[in-house]
Amino acid sequence: MKLRIDLNSSNPVYRQIVDGLRILLVNGELNTGDQLPPVRRLALDLGVHFNTVAEAYRTLAEEGWLDIGRRNGAHVIARPLPSRPDPETEVSFQRRLRELAAEVQARGFSRARIARELRLLAENLERS
Amino acid sequence: MPLHLVLIVPALLAMAGIFHITPQLTRPDLFFSVTTPPDFRRSPEGQQIMKRYRLIVWGTSLAAIALVLVFGVPLFAVLLPGLGFWGAFLSARRQAMAHAAAPDPVIEVELNAPEERLPGGWVVAILPILALAAVGVWASFHMDQIPRRMAVHWGFHGPDRWVDATPAAVFGFLAVHASTSLLLIGMAWGLLHASRRIATSGPSAEAERRFRKRMVAMCIVMAYLMGVPVAVVLLMPSAPDMTIWFLALTAVIVFFTVTLFQLGQGGSRLASTTRTTPMGDRTSDVFWKLGVLYINPADPAILVEKRFGIGYTVNFGNRWSWVALAAVAVPAALGMVFLR
After folding, report:
1. Which of A8, A42, A49 sits opposite B109 (nearest CB)?
2. Are B317 and B296 contacting, i.e. CB atoms less than 8 angstroms apart?
């Protein structure tokens, strides 16, 4: 199970760690009770400051995914999914999708390609 | 011709041989401390750089041998090959920089990587220091039982340096060796907990783990070899024969040198790479001064793999590296002063 970050990405490393781990959590690749590498270990392996990883872990802990124990260890905890998202999340989700589509279009993705990728994602989501 | 001058010749040849093979021991995408595509070293330009490097290494080594044999000055034996090696390395590095490639910006980390621990745990690692501390406590109550003169250095023919066993000398002797043992144990800990894992999965990661394990074992064994004899020296009524210790030390050095050379830097000789984009050691060339000094304040690693040669070096940009070095160097320096 791998966490992948791109040092050349415009997305900050902290955000990439949060996003990468959240994908693993949502997809069930990281399950309740699983232990994550200590902050120090992950920071060393990624070559980033300890605070960057600690902040990412804290964000996921605030979202209810992780329990951060002593000595900077963290493990996945059971997180009941809300029955329906709050209205703010719905609005934010649609806005971020539109923003992302506009961003990749500005970088050269065709509309057809974006639609294809979204369809693929939708199919994967329905299957899982 | 004095025997010691004749003995210099095989030593110089062995040194030249080591310099000769050193570029082959590095990771495939690090060529003379520069990040290059993995197959660059096999290209005509790469081979040309290698050829020139080896020509200078052997040229200066053979010149040093000739000067030693003709003029009988051992200083040539040290200076000339050393200068030749540095000149050859820096020249090769400068040429390789023209072919430098950007390392892969994408980093993958295996979240399930097995935890690596000190062999035998903490107790086994710190036993040499505990032994020295115990001798120190014992000595503070039994100074009268320590021989008046104690040997503090051994040569081929037994002890060759003695000092009066004053309390300052006894504790200085203990401090020097405790610091050396502490440095080695600290390195073993640092290799596991303050250095980066470069390969994340597959055979490369396994090879890297084997390499690290061997390095850690070497540090622990050397800590024992540095610490335990001191306790023996202080506790024995007369200067002990250190032949067994010399043989053990030589055997350990030879064993670890040979096996680490077989593994290659970071275990790179065990697992071939199929990558086309260089990964290097996950550090940027700009932080390597002269190709050997790593200075990167933003890198949390205290120890990083050497780019040229086998083993690890310190990240001089990390303030904790200086704290660790001072923690070892200060007692060692004080001990040396007391031993004079």
Report:
1. A42
2. yes
CB A27, CB A128: distance < 8 Å: yes
Question: Would you state the structure tokens that stand for residue A31, as one six-digit string?
Answer: 């399950």
Read off the pLDDT of each residue in B218-225 and give the average, rounded to a whole number: 93
Q: What is the ipTM of this complex?
A: 0.79
CB neighbour list of residue A122: distance below 8 Å, 6 or more residues apart: none
Which phi and psi (to 5°) does residue B241 adopt?
A: -80, 120
CB contact under 8 A, B200 and A36: no
Whole-angstrom Cα distance, residue B74 to residue B81?
A: 12
pLDDT class of B1 with cuts at 50, 70, 90: low
Taking each continuous run of H as one helix and of E as one strand, the counts in chain A are 5, 4
Residue A116's alpha-carbon distances to A21, A33, A98, B174, B288, in angstroms, are 25, 36, 15, 72, 45
Q: Taking residues B259-276, what's their average pLDDT?
A: 82
pLDDT band at B87 (very low <50, low <70, confident <90, very high): very high
The pLDDT tens digits for B195-205 are 999 887 778 88
pLDDT value at position A87?
A: 83
- Kindly report, residue by residue over B9-23, the tens digit of the pLDDT: 888 899 999 999 999
Total Cβ atoms within 10 A of residue B229:
18
Contact B300 A49 (CB under 8 A): yes
Distance between CA atoms of B79 and B60, rounded to whole angstroms?
10
Residue A38 near residue A73 (C-beta atoms within 8 A)? yes
Count of CB atoms situated within 10 Å of the CB of B209: 16
- Intervals of chain A under pLDDT 50: none
Task: Check residues B246 and B253 and name the one with the higher pLDDT.
Answer: B253
Across the interface, which of B105, B110, B194 has its CB nearest the CB of A2?
Answer: B110
* Of the candidates B133, B123, B210, the residue with the CA atom closest to the CA atom of residue B174: B133
The values of phi and psi at residue B333, to 5°, are -65, -40
Tell the residue number behind the tokens 């057809």, with chain if given.
A112
Which DSSP helix (H) or strand (E) runs through B288?
A: strand B288-289
Residue B112: closest CA among chain A residues belongs to which residue?
A: A1
Could you give the CA distance from residue B248 to residue B269 in angstroms, rounded to a whole number? 27
